[in-house]
């Protein structure tokens, strides 16, 4: 099925939805704040669409999500510090968008992270030392940004190398 147009979620009665995958369609507009009402959602994949605009803060209401992929869209603005509230999040893929600003230190509070992919954005500044708190992290992807400074050995202390 090929879908296009705007996301109008959550539709009536969809608040029990646990998986939503709309990848590789032509979904347009911005991510609606109402997606944050899908409290039971554990898997959300909106990659490879034409979504634009900033992430709404209400979006972090999907507190049970473990997999979140918003890659390959036209999303702008900053990576929300409120992502720290998604305490079950294991995989966050925001690659190939137009995020700006620095990587929020609050991401170091998501101790469940296994994969953090911020490749191909316009992020700048130094890596926050708080990333050293991510003991379960196995995949850290930061290619093609504007990061600067030195890599502190503390960031990778205790992480397994594979």
TrEMBL record:
Membrane topology, as annotated: Single-pass membrane protein
Positions in coiled-coil regions: none
Keywords annotated in UniProt: Kinase, Leucine-rich repeat, Receptor, Repeat, Signal, Transferase
Record SUPFAM superfamilies: L domain-like
GO CC list: membrane
Superkingdom of the organism of origin: Eukaryota
MF annotations from Gene Ontology: protein serine/threonine kinase activity
Location relative to the cell: Membrane
Name recorded for this polypeptide: Leucine-rich repeat receptor-like protein kinase TDR
Natural source organism: Dendrobium catenatum
Taxonomic lineage from the root: Eukaryota, Viridiplantae, Streptophyta, Embryophyta, Tracheophyta
Gene from which the chain derives: TDR
């Amino acid at each position: 099925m090929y879908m296009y147009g705007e996301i109008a979620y959550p539709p009536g009665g969809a608040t029990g939805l646990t998986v939503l995958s709309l990848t590789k369609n032509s979904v347009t507009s911005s991510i609606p704040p109402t997606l944050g009402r899908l409290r039971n959602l554990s898997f959300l994949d909106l990659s490879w669409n034409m979504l634009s605009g900033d992430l709404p803060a209400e979006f972090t209401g999907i507190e049970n999500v473990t997999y979140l992929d918003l890659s390959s869209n036209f999303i702008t603005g900053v990576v929300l510090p409120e992502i720290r509230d998604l305490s079950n999040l294991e995989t966050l893929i925001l690659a190939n968008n137009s995020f700006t600003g620095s990587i929020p230190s609050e991401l170091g509070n998501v101790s469940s992270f296994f994969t953090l992919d911020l490749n191909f954005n316009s992020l700048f500044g130094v890596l926050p030392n708080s990333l050293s708190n991510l003991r379960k992290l196995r995949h850290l992807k930061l290619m093609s940004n504007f990061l600067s400074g030195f890599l502190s050995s503390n960031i990778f202390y205790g992480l397994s190398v594979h």
